[in-house]
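Sat 14:20. Reprocessing the chain from the morning session after the first attempt stalled halfway. Input below, unchanged.
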Amino acid sequence: MLKQRVITAIVLLALLLPALVASFSWPFAILTLLLIGAAGWGWGG
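Finished this time. Tokens:
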């Protein structure tokens, strides 16, 4: 269980950090939209 959480955290950081340091804002906006959609899907189920 811990291994899965660590892998998930690494994957999310690998997506979040480049989106934060990008010179334009659309990568962060798309990533945020995807994460909100996934959270809504998980919460709705």
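The chain has one domain: 2-44.
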